Amino acid sequence: MIHCFTSRYEHKNLNIYNQSVQTFKSHNFRMLWTSSVAAHMSVGMQQVMLGWISYDISQSIVFVGLIFALRQVPFVIGGMIAGILSDMVDRKFLIIFTSAILAIISLSVATINQSIPFSMAGLSALALLLGAIDSVQLTTRSAYAYQINEHQSALNGIALINLASKVGAISGALVGGFLIAQFNTSVGFYIMGGAYVISAAVASQMHRTPRSPSSKQSHAPLTNLISYFLLLKNNKQLQVLFTSCTLTEVFGFSYQVLLPVLVAETLEAGGFTLGILNATKHLGGIFSIFMIVSTQAKTGNMKMISLLILGFGIGELMLANSSTLIFMIISVFTINLISGATDIVHQTLMQSITETDQRGKAMGTWVVGVGIGPAGHLEIAYLGSLLSSRLALIVNGGILIGLAVTLSAIQGRSRTKSSP
User: Which of 80, 170, 174, 347 has the highest local Cβ count within 10 Å?
Assistant: First the structure.
């Protein structure tokens, strides 16, 4: 019996390995993966530097929350626009173009910051600008990953692209923290710009990938905008996924606003420790990818999402009770192990329930949910200043647990109605 179980386990791992190898046989996927590593190295540096600079110049938890919120505000409109663009324009071109623009912005900021220090207004404007362009990047890369892998395992393809983002972000977080401690933020922005240049250069090596035949699509912007809202209105499954994605963003991912404060006040540490926690965050995301791929599911399901959100809430309760660096690292790792998987399943399910020519819009819907996340950044920052960081995490963790229970109840009711 033990031998039988071991054989099944080894066979399952072999299937996962073969599936991943098959995905990487695609030249376009290899280029997209490598380009994503470089791009997300810049994003990892960006998160550390924005968080540290905002707290350093203001000494205010509310301003840190505001900066994180401003970076995601453009995702609300940007998600819709990016989804439409991703269905209309060549996705390879969008990836290269946005990477080049982000490189120019990063290098310009680095040069200006050498002589002019950051102000609250300047940092706020930078966060908005970076968020606007990142919303297009995020939507297009995920839609292109699905496009390349739709005839194999879409979940595997998107999980591997998420792996690329975590590999890049974990290195970016460590590099960003090191540069803050040893040099200055200008050097950080120069390195950030260089990574975006590499991302654009690698993406330029991708071959054009024809899209699967689908219904004819109008390229008129107004028509596409109307079709976006009709898709959300008529697809009940997409509505549920959009709601769960949005609430998870608001009450889950917003916990990262408190990391600079927890580092400074609870641990009495500096930028390098914040870099370690951000790196741990992305390391948890990497393990979440292996966890999702190991299921061998093609797209995931609502039961999986409910369980993941439940774990997300428990993770936040763990962080609320962290008083040492080691326990804080364990808590952040646990949160991101769960939250990373939640993201992957949401992205894949949203695209799996839509037609080929609507998948950009489906991903745009996910990005809109991410864009509504700033409400959570402001909410947790306000609760943190009104009560305490610990109580703010307890409140949000409890809300996530309640959301998981509600989704399970909805799923059970739907199953009962569909039964004969």
Answer: 347
